[in-house]
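Side project, low priority. Logging it here so it doesn't get lost.
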Amino acid sequence: MPLNVDLSIFGSRQAGVALYAVAMARFLEDKEAANVICPDHWSAHFSKPTVCSPPLRFRNAVLFRHPDWSRQLGRGGRLYCPHDRLALGVRDQVITLHDTLPYVYPTRNPVEWLYYRALLPSCIHRLSGVFTVSETSKKDIIDRFGLAPSKVHLVPNGIDLDIWSRGHYPD
Protein backbone atom coordinates (compact mmCIF):
# COMPACT_ATOMS: atom_id res chain seq x y z
CA MET A 1 0.00 0.00 0.00
CA PRO A 2 1.56 3.34 -1.01
CA LEU A 3 2.25 5.95 1.64
CA ASN A 4 1.54 9.61 0.86
CA VAL A 5 2.91 12.40 3.05
CA ASP A 6 0.97 15.67 2.93
CA LEU A 7 2.95 18.91 3.25
CA SER A 8 0.48 20.84 1.11
CA ILE A 9 -0.68 23.16 3.90
CA PHE A 10 2.70 24.73 4.62
CA GLY A 11 3.65 28.17 3.42
CA SER A 12 7.24 29.08 2.59
CA ARG A 13 8.23 30.02 6.16
CA GLN A 14 10.76 27.43 7.31
CA ALA A 15 10.13 27.16 11.04
CA GLY A 16 8.39 25.12 13.71
CA VAL A 17 6.01 22.40 12.62
CA ALA A 18 6.97 22.87 8.95
CA LEU A 19 10.59 21.91 9.69
CA TYR A 20 9.44 18.92 11.73
CA ALA A 21 7.13 17.86 8.88
CA VAL A 22 9.83 18.20 6.21
CA ALA A 23 12.29 16.15 8.29
CA MET A 24 9.67 13.44 8.82
CA ALA A 25 8.72 13.44 5.13
CA ARG A 26 12.38 13.17 4.05
CA PHE A 27 12.83 10.18 6.36
CA LEU A 28 9.68 8.48 5.03
CA GLU A 29 10.61 9.19 1.41
CA ASP A 30 14.00 7.59 2.00
CA LYS A 31 12.99 4.62 4.18
CA GLU A 32 9.47 3.84 2.96
CA ALA A 33 9.49 5.20 -0.62
CA ALA A 34 6.71 7.59 0.41
CA ASN A 35 5.20 10.00 -2.08
CA VAL A 36 5.59 13.54 -0.73
CA ILE A 37 2.91 16.04 -1.76
CA CYS A 38 4.12 19.61 -1.32
CA PRO A 39 4.00 23.12 -2.78
CA ASP A 40 6.82 24.06 -5.12
CA HIS A 41 8.73 26.03 -2.45
CA TRP A 42 9.37 22.77 -0.50
CA SER A 43 10.05 20.51 -3.50
CA ALA A 44 13.85 20.96 -3.49
CA HIS A 45 13.99 18.96 -0.24
CA PHE A 46 12.78 15.76 -1.92
CA SER A 47 13.97 13.46 -4.68
CA LYS A 48 10.59 12.92 -6.42
CA PRO A 49 7.97 15.21 -4.91
CA THR A 50 4.44 15.54 -6.19
CA VAL A 51 4.05 19.30 -6.50
CA CYS A 52 0.68 20.84 -5.68
CA SER A 53 -0.68 24.35 -5.39
CA PRO A 54 -0.50 26.08 -2.00
CA PRO A 55 -3.62 25.98 0.18
CA LEU A 56 -6.27 28.67 0.25
CA ARG A 57 -5.93 30.88 3.34
CA PHE A 58 -7.97 33.40 5.28
CA ARG A 59 -6.36 35.65 7.91
CA ASN A 60 -3.26 33.44 7.90
CA ALA A 61 -5.25 30.25 8.56
CA VAL A 62 -5.58 27.36 6.13
CA LEU A 63 -9.15 27.38 4.82
CA PHE A 64 -8.67 24.20 2.83
CA ARG A 65 -6.26 22.50 0.48
CA HIS A 66 -6.19 23.77 -3.09
CA PRO A 67 -8.79 22.02 -5.28
CA ASP A 68 -6.05 20.29 -7.31
CA TRP A 69 -4.74 18.58 -4.16
CA SER A 70 -6.90 15.46 -4.42
CA ARG A 71 -5.67 14.83 -7.98
CA GLN A 72 -2.10 14.91 -6.68
CA LEU A 73 -2.94 12.32 -4.03
CA GLY A 74 -3.61 9.65 -6.60
CA ARG A 75 -5.56 6.51 -5.86
CA GLY A 76 -5.44 4.59 -2.63
CA GLY A 77 -2.73 4.32 -0.06
CA ARG A 78 -2.39 5.74 3.41
CA LEU A 79 -2.11 9.47 3.98
CA TYR A 80 0.15 10.78 6.72
CA CYS A 81 -0.27 14.42 7.72
CA PRO A 82 2.65 15.47 9.97
CA HIS A 83 0.42 18.33 11.16
CA ASP A 84 -3.08 18.61 12.59
CA ARG A 85 -4.98 19.36 9.35
CA LEU A 86 -6.88 16.24 8.39
CA ALA A 87 -7.93 15.73 4.79
CA LEU A 88 -11.65 15.43 4.21
CA GLY A 89 -12.73 12.46 2.13
CA VAL A 90 -9.57 10.40 2.69
CA ARG A 91 -10.36 7.17 4.51
CA ASP A 92 -6.98 5.86 5.62
CA GLN A 93 -5.06 8.69 7.25
CA VAL A 94 -2.95 9.49 10.29
CA ILE A 95 -2.31 13.01 11.62
CA THR A 96 0.13 14.45 14.13
CA LEU A 97 -1.58 16.39 16.89
CA HIS A 98 1.20 17.96 18.94
CA ASP A 99 -1.02 19.10 21.79
CA THR A 100 -4.46 20.39 22.73
CA LEU A 101 -3.43 24.02 23.30
CA PRO A 102 -6.03 25.42 20.86
CA TYR A 103 -8.65 24.22 23.36
CA VAL A 104 -6.89 25.74 26.37
CA TYR A 105 -6.07 29.04 24.61
CA PRO A 106 -8.75 29.55 21.93
CA THR A 107 -7.88 31.60 18.89
CA ARG A 108 -9.74 34.67 17.68
CA ASN A 109 -9.35 33.55 14.08
CA PRO A 110 -12.79 32.28 12.97
CA VAL A 111 -11.32 29.65 10.65
CA GLU A 112 -9.09 28.20 13.38
CA TRP A 113 -11.95 28.32 15.88
CA LEU A 114 -14.26 26.43 13.51
CA TYR A 115 -11.61 23.82 12.71
CA TYR A 116 -10.77 23.03 16.34
CA ARG A 117 -14.30 23.33 17.75
CA ALA A 118 -16.30 21.61 15.01
CA LEU A 119 -14.38 19.89 12.22
CA LEU A 120 -11.54 18.12 14.05
CA PRO A 121 -13.75 16.77 16.89
CA SER A 122 -16.32 15.43 14.43
CA CYS A 123 -13.74 13.70 12.18
CA ILE A 124 -10.96 12.53 14.51
CA HIS A 125 -12.72 9.22 15.29
CA ARG A 126 -12.56 8.23 11.60
CA LEU A 127 -8.76 8.53 11.43
CA SER A 128 -6.60 5.41 11.34
CA GLY A 129 -4.48 6.93 14.09
CA VAL A 130 -3.07 10.02 15.76
CA PHE A 131 0.60 10.65 16.52
CA THR A 132 1.57 12.94 19.36
CA VAL A 133 4.84 14.02 20.98
CA SER A 134 4.43 13.40 24.72
CA GLU A 135 2.63 11.24 27.26
CA THR A 136 0.86 14.36 28.54
CA SER A 137 -0.41 15.22 25.05
CA LYS A 138 -1.48 11.60 24.52
CA LYS A 139 -3.54 11.66 27.72
CA ASP A 140 -5.04 15.06 26.83
CA ILE A 141 -6.03 13.85 23.33
CA ILE A 142 -7.59 10.64 24.68
CA ASP A 143 -9.52 12.59 27.34
CA ARG A 144 -10.66 15.42 25.05
CA PHE A 145 -11.79 13.31 22.09
CA GLY A 146 -12.64 10.02 23.78
CA LEU A 147 -10.27 8.06 21.56
CA ALA A 148 -9.12 4.55 22.40
CA PRO A 149 -5.55 4.61 23.78
CA SER A 150 -4.55 2.15 21.03
CA LYS A 151 -5.38 4.80 18.41
CA VAL A 152 -3.01 7.46 19.83
CA HIS A 153 0.69 6.76 19.31
CA LEU A 154 3.60 8.44 21.05
CA VAL A 155 6.38 9.67 18.72
CA PRO A 156 8.61 11.98 20.78
CA ASN A 157 10.28 14.98 19.20
CA GLY A 158 13.91 14.38 18.47
CA ILE A 159 16.89 16.18 17.09
CA ASP A 160 19.90 15.15 15.07
CA LEU A 161 22.85 16.05 17.28
CA ASP A 162 25.14 16.03 14.23
CA ILE A 163 23.16 18.97 12.84
CA TRP A 164 21.97 20.79 15.96
CA SER A 165 24.94 21.47 18.19
CA ARG A 166 25.72 24.50 20.25
CA GLY A 167 26.25 27.43 17.91
CA HIS A 168 25.73 25.42 14.68
CA TYR A 169 22.36 25.51 12.91
CA PRO A 170 21.40 24.32 9.44
CA ASP A 171 20.81 26.83 6.67
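Brief comment: DSSP finds five helices and nine strands in the chain.
Revisit when time allows.
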